[in-house]
UniProtKB/TrEMBL annotation:
The protein's name: Flagellar hook-associated protein
Organism encoding this protein: Pseudomonas straminea
Amino acid sequence: MRVDKHSPIVSGLDRQAPKRSLVTVADAAQQTQSERGAAVGSAQGRKSAGFGLQLNQQLTTMQSASSYLAQLSATLVPLKLSLSRELGNARMQDREGVGAQLGELRSLLEQRSARSAGSLDGQLNLHLNEPVRVRFSLPGLESLQTFQQAGRESLLFSIGRSSQEPVAVVLDEGLSEEQILRRFNVGLAPAGIRSELTTDGALVFSAREADWQTLREHLRVKGEGALFAAQRFTELKPVESQLLQPQALETLEEPREVRRMLDTVVKVLDHIQELGEQLRQRQDEIRSFLARQLGDDEQRWAGDYVTAVYNLMRKSSSSYASVSDTLVAQATISRFTVISLLS
């Protein structure tokens, strides 16, 4: 009978046990959530850092391109003035001055890839996310009508050294322009060569600038007699397509040639101005984004730091006074102090 009197005590103890269990589970869940949040924050930080590094690299490349374009513009402006003065003369008067300007221009164009960090092609177009390609035409392969008139023929291209395997382009009768273009793209793809049509309907090719030197010196083709000889390989001389190709001084004797060169210089200067404005706008956007990203990183770092300190104090058996003293001390520590101590 006395056992019944102790029943409430046993019941009370039973009711309190789950409470302690729930608290323990809650603490563990909170700790797991904090650790999970810290892990997610760390992953986001690494992703943000990688993206910021990529943008910084693009910013550096664009700065090199802008610097090169500025130098090119500074060279073209005096040449434009000289050509304008010579335009009214029957024969060129200041041959020495114009010749020196053309020589300086050629030298600068030859340094395009190095000075622009490999970001500008021969057309002075910007490439940030892919390698620069050289556009060129091949004698005897400029017109699609020529292929359509020739009918069926297989073209065997030898590219590079003789040890490399040739690639083939098979042309059939009745092919449309799109089909011919597709045959060239499929056949020349193993050699890294692409083909396309200009606005005038001419067939042009492109290859990576790193492969251009070898391609220019070692490109041959063998046909079946209609387009190219079948008994031997015919050497091809690719003609590079550039926005600006300085003519030899001797070809500028005629006013017509001077006018043509002047028109080209004016066109290039307009292109440089337009591209320069786009580069400046893009650089400003990247700088603004990186500045905002830096602020976000600072806030994320501060949050992670406070969370780490809080978790550390929760695991300790410090008194309220000790915790208070710790918080006051943390408030006076700068990020740079922490980094210096931890490094």
